[in-house]
Amino acid sequence: MGIIDSIVKKFAEQGTIEYKSKLSETVYHIRIQSNSIKKADFVPGYFVRLGVGLGVSDSSIKDKVRSYSVWDINKESGTIDLAIATHSNGVGADWVKKCEIGNEVSFVWKKGNFLVDNNADYYLMIGDLSALSHLYIINRHLSKDKKVESILYNKKLNEHFNDIDKNKPFHFYEMAENPFEEIVTKIKEIIPNMTGRKMVYISGDSRICVSLNQFFRKELNWDSKQIRIKPFWNPEKKGLE
Ligand SMILES: Cc1cc2nc3c(=O)[nH]c(=O)nc-3n(C[C@H](O)[C@H](O)[C@H](O)COP(=O)(O)OP(=O)(O)OC[C@H]3O[C@@H](n4cnc5c(N)ncnc54)[C@H](O)[C@@H]3O)c2cc1C
Question: Fewer CB within 10 Å: C terminus or N terminus of the chain?
Fold first, then answer.
């Protein structure tokens, strides 16, 4: 084992892949079991950094780890569920295609601030396939009186998947990559019907995160507290966090 692998493993928690299935043509569902998850202090919106390139001797530091959102957690059984999209075709995508039930995996908890926030009345969720599981868990943990609108987009409609409880709470759209104008058109249709305190969650493609942040602040004059943003990937970069 290389030095980097040893360091990552020393600070990471160890789990075992307990379940693997395909959610759609390009997205995998992975369940990781670890007794440490039973004691996890969890807030919906937390994610993990997975050791996807450990044990691969020729991989560079930046190809050792990738971030994935916790789609669901079961503290009794000590499991977390992840939904991993493979459009990126990088080491993370390669790992999820090849990993098998029973394999060991190293992971580190990350908290961030893209978390559930019950301070609004009406929510708008915007994201691509990589962000779907994160937006699902946020949505499931909003209190029942909240209203939610959504714009989830992908090049192929049938690559979207249902939530882990089999519900379909979001609206899916077929859109090309980086579809800023199309999303803005939808936002303009939705916003007039949103009443009370409003909040938007935006994640996935960093180009959409940046341009929609500008749009909500400058054109709609929304306050920064109403805008929750987390870029998940950037076409110029490998990994992100
Ligand atoms: C906090 C956080 C949570 C995340 N949660 C999830 C999650 O739950 N599920 C999930 O699928 N992804 C998630 N991501 C995104 C995931 O970590 C990245 O997409 C990751 O870079 C993919 O790794 P890779 O090794 O396959 O590709 P990389 O080697 O990182 O990238 C290869 C190329 O693919 C591009 N690329 C990366 N992602 C995509 C994409 N989705 N579509 C098109 N092109 C892409 C990159 O820009 C790069 O050009 C999350 C990211 C962050 C920061």
Answer: N
User: Is the CB of 241 within 6 Å of ligand 1?
Assistant: yes
Give the pTM: 0.97
Q: How far apart are CA 71 and CA 29, in angstroms?
A: 9
Question: Both 51 and 149 in a single domain?
Answer: no
Q: Is 103 in the pocket of ligand 1 (CB under 6 A)?
A: no
pLDDT per position as a tens digit, 109-157? 999 999 999 999 999 999 999 999 999 999 999 999 999 999 999 999 9
CA of 196 to the centre of ligand 1 (A): 34
Q: Which residue has its alpha carbon closest to ligand 1 atom 40? A: 88
Task: Please identify, by atom number, the ligand 1 atom nearest to the C-alpha of residue 52.
Answer: 25
Residue span of the structural domain in which 52 resides: 3-110
